[in-house]
Amino acid sequence: MSRPFTALAAVLLLLIPAQPAAARPVAAAAPAPAGYRVGAGIADITAGVAEVGMLGYADPAQTTAGLASRLWSRAFVVADGAGKRVALVSAEVDFITQAVQVEVLKRLQARYGTAYTDQNLVLTATHTHSGPGGFDEHVLYNLTTLGFEAPVFEAIVAGIVRSVDAAHADLAPGTVKIAEGTLSGANVNRSIEPFRANPAADRARFPDAVDTRMTVLRFEQAGRSGC
Question: Which positions carry the signal peptide feature in this UniProt record (predicted)?
């Protein structure tokens, strides 16, 4: 399988202008680009562990009251032999806001120029409801925090950037693997009645009323692996 990566290999033939037959060299082929380089990085994005509105349940009474476990940003960078690269980030927040994306890109471009742009930086969230809010620029999503929380925003942005920095520095020859299988008993349908109102053909695709497909993307270096 090839999501989000596809094998890239190109052969460039160097054509030599015609010469007399006795002196004509054999046309040379440039070596194909090398395989993937992969790197992984992790950084802390914990902030607002006391008396800050949490994000997820839209409940102003749900505020932080201590630290049970830290929140992290995990980054993976994959580069091919032609110099193209992609950075994948999974951050333990409810969702990625536009404000976070814009600031992360601004800081990465100050470090790496055009190496990371909105075309090859993929920021994703675990959708945890167990973290602070207030890191958006839109009022709606800051209601439970009664406004913008600059320390939370800074911790998330700076942590994501540090995780990409670490993954970038960790780049080394490796492989990218992807697999798909069935995982049962791990999820539930929270809207079962609307689901049952779907056409029979749609319901038949999901006999357990949930999607049981699990996709795993794995990055490996020599003697090291992560997923």
Answer: 1-23
